[in-house]
Specification:
The complex is a heterodimer of chains A (107) and B (173). Chain A is of the alpha+beta class and 107 residues long. Chain A is 39% helix and 15% strand. Classes of the chains: A alpha+beta (107), B alpha+beta (173).
Chain lengths: 107, 173
């Protein structure tokens, strides 16, 4: 007998719903949800730091720096989804920009 | 000196491109893991000044733009908007204890960066809120209409080290 496992999770719907979410800080100035604290900052802040850091560090640690920047996005997506969904990452920048310049993260 | 929140927020979502805009600024939602890992990377790379500088430049621009578009000319309006924006984007609860031409003091009763770091790794033996430090420097520049790097900011007490609140001293060299 062959058993096929099915799931009732509509991954695309979750992604669509979470992408549209509007948030604002509570009376403590914090945004809490999905077991994490969230912030909504300008994309250029994250992108500018990532790009300038990669260009500033010594050549021998560029690869490691890029890995850590991308890993930050992966961890953020993983934890925001309670570890239940693998992160899917998209860049806010135009096509062709380095992967470490990640602005939008969807789980 | 306690200021009410007087902030206008205009949130737009471009469903085709999956982009969020807050007061016209392309914005992204990230959690404390992301902020903590970026901060840790800055600490490890000895580039915390870069992280603070990028924060200062970004938020000086955001706040200056907001003041211009919303006619925020009085000191009260500008302080209210700056503290309100800090809270609205989830960075924490900020109170301006005093604000002068050459110096100032800011207290954070709550801080995303500190709370996030502690949730992820626990307490730390040094301040980690370089994003907040940069925000405050940019805020002072925007409020006084001065270029970035006009003000220096030093975190003297930190939630992440066990203090009840974080405290920042602002000064000019």
């Amino acid at each position: 007998m062959t058993t096929t496992m099915t799931t009732s999770i509509n991954r695309q719907k979750i992604i669509d719903d979470m992408s549209k979410i509007e948030v604002a800080g509570d009376e403590r100035g914090l945004i809490e949800g999905f077991n994490v604290f969230v912030q909504q900052l300008p994309a250029r802040f994250w992108n500018s730091f990532a790009d300038r850091l990669v260009n500033k560090v010594e050549p021998e640690v560029v690869e490691a720096t890029e890995y850590l920047l991308v890993n930050a996005a992966h961890e953020c997506g993983y934890h925001t989804g309670y570890g239940g969904l693998a992160p899917e990452i998209r860049s806010t920048s135009n096509e062709g920009f380095p992967e470490h310049m990640i602005g939008v993260l969807l789980i | 000196m306690s200021r009410p929140t007087q902030l206008k927020l205009d949130h737009k979502f471009d469903a085709d491109r999956m982009r969020h805009y807050l007061n016209g600024q392309l914005s992204v939602l990230h959690c404390h893991h992301y902020a903590s890992l970026y901060t840790q990377l800055a600490v490890d790379a000895k580039e915390t000044e870069l992280l603070a500088a990028v924060s200062e430049e970004t938020f000086a621009g955001v706040l200056t733009d907001y003041f211009d578009k919303n006619g925020a000319e009085s000191l009260d309006d500008r302080i209210g908007a700056a503290c309100g924006y800090f809270a609205a984007v989830g960075l924490g609860k900020m109170t301006v204890t005093y604000l002068g031409n050459d110096s100032g003091q800011i207290v954070l009763e709550e801080s995303h960066v500190d709370r996030g770091w502690m949730k992820k790794w626990g307490q730390f033996d040094a301040p980690v809120n370089h994003i907040g430090r940069g925000y405050i420097a940019g805020m002072f520049s925007a409020i006084w209409g001065k270029p970035v790097r006009t003000f220096k900011v030093r975190e003297t007490e930190s939630i992440v080290t066990g203090a009840e609140e974080s405290c920042f001293k602002v000064y000019k060299d």
